[in-house]
Amino acid sequence: MTTQPPKICVYCGSRPGSDVIYAETAGAVGRRIAAAGWGLIYGAGDAGLMGLTARAALEGGAPVLGFIPRRLIGLEAAIDELTATVVTETMHERKKLMMENADAVLALPGGIGTMDELVEAITWRQLQIVEKPVILLDVNGYWGPFLALIDHIVAQGFADPSLSNLFEVAEGVDAAMIRLSHYVEASAAAAQ
């Protein structure tokens, strides 16, 4: 029986961001996913951090699975060399299938689409729809305002303090990879 490699769903921007550190981090994440023998799941685009992460993973030999809604075909450039591309009918279906096919979620810096994906993943954990780990890779303090908003939501009584337990923050690629390795190993042990 052939086992599938663990798959990491990466949420990140379709733009490169204003600091070169974001692009460097995206490439490093793709290379490290490949070096670990894992697969990448992402939104199928070739622009910004998305494209950099996917191309680095492909160059390292990782299987890369992209999900793209039909209405974005032609609007967003896709990578032809992906291991597989899944065309969905809606954005919701895209997010659902990405989550269902992933073993863990890693959020890099990104725009409102990245925020949408991240908040939905955290919400699904809160509602116990999924139990997959969600890790924020905090590059250049990017996630600081989001974390402050989470604290504000709790302080204003709109969420229990346990909201912060639904995700982790990794300070850099090495820390993120260590956390992902821990989850991948624990998942593999539980499956045996």
If you had to describe this structure to a student in words, what would you say it looks like?
With 192 residues, this protein is α/β, with parallel strands linked by helices. Helix content is 44%, strand content 16%. The chain has helices at 20-35, 48-59, 91-101, 112-126, 144-155, 173-191; strands spanning 7-11, 39-42, 64-69, 84-88, 104-107, 134-137, 168-170. It has a seven-stranded parallel β-sheet with strand order 4-3-2-1-5-6-7, with helices on both faces. The radius of gyration is 16 Å and the shape is globular. It starts with 6 loop residues before the first strand and ends with a helix. The model has no long low-confidence stretch (mean pLDDT 92).
What's this, in brief?
By secondary structure, the protein is α/β, with parallel strands linked by helices. It has helices at 20-35, 48-59, 91-101, 112-126, 144-155, 173-191; strands at residues 7-11, 39-42, 64-69, 84-88, 104-107, 134-137, 168-170.
Termini separation comes to: 13 Å
Assess the beta-strand content as a share of residues.
15-25%
Number of helices: 6
Average predicted local confidence, pLDDT: 92
Secondary structure: number of strands: 7
> How are strands sequenced across the largest beta sheet?
4-3-2-1-5-6-7
Largest sheet: 7 strands, parallel
Gyration radius from CA atoms, angstroms: 16 Å
Assign a percent range to the helix content: 40-55%
Q: Pairing-aware structural class of the strands and helices?
A: alpha/beta
Please mark out the parts with pLDDT under 50 across 5 or more consecutive residues, or reply none. Answer: none
Shape: globular
How would you spell out the order of helices and strands? EHEHEEHEHEHEH
